[in-house]
Amino acid sequence: MAARNKTKSKASARDYADKYTYRIQWHEEDREFVGLCAEFPLLSWLAPEPEAALKGIRAVVSDVVTDKLKRGESVPEPLVTRRYSGVFKVRIPPEVHRSLVMEAAESNVSLNRLVSSKLSSSGLSGVEKKPE
To answer: Do 53 and 32 meet the contact criterion of CB atoms below 8 Å apart?
Structure first.
């Protein structure tokens, strides 16, 4: 039986950067497109064209990841490769909790199913973060 090489090759900055989550949107104040990376919320790149904004933010992220890896620092795991359990806790006011329980009972479904359905149909993926 042949022995396998058990040494892991180190992931490159590009391996990480290619899997990160990017978004390009118009920035009215600057009158340019801004490139953003969800895993690095403090980084951005402005450009007159959306393609240039994407290219710019990818380059900045790659540079930051390269620097962090060289210094032996950890880098964020890409959102798409993280494992999600499908379970999370949400704190809500007692009156909202009561109202949801009543609605679930009246619909003859579990509270979990009702809330899951409401979250799924609410279009949360398009929710914009409020500016600070």
So the answer is: yes
pTM: 0.67
> For the chain, what are the domain ranges?
13-80, 84-122
Count the neighbouring beta carbons within 10 Å of the beta carbon of residue 20. 22
- Between CA 9 and CA 106 the distance in angstroms is 56
CA–CA distance, 111 with 107 (Å, rounded to integer): 10
Other residues' Cβ atoms within 10 Å of the Cβ of residue 50 = 15
Report the distance separating Cα 75 and Cα 37, nearest Å: 13
Q: Give the DSSP letter of residue 80.
A: G
Task: Please give the class, per CATH, of domain 13-80.
Answer: alpha beta
Query: What does the pLDDT average to over 15-44?
Result: 95
In angstroms, what is the C-alpha Rg of the chain?
A: 21
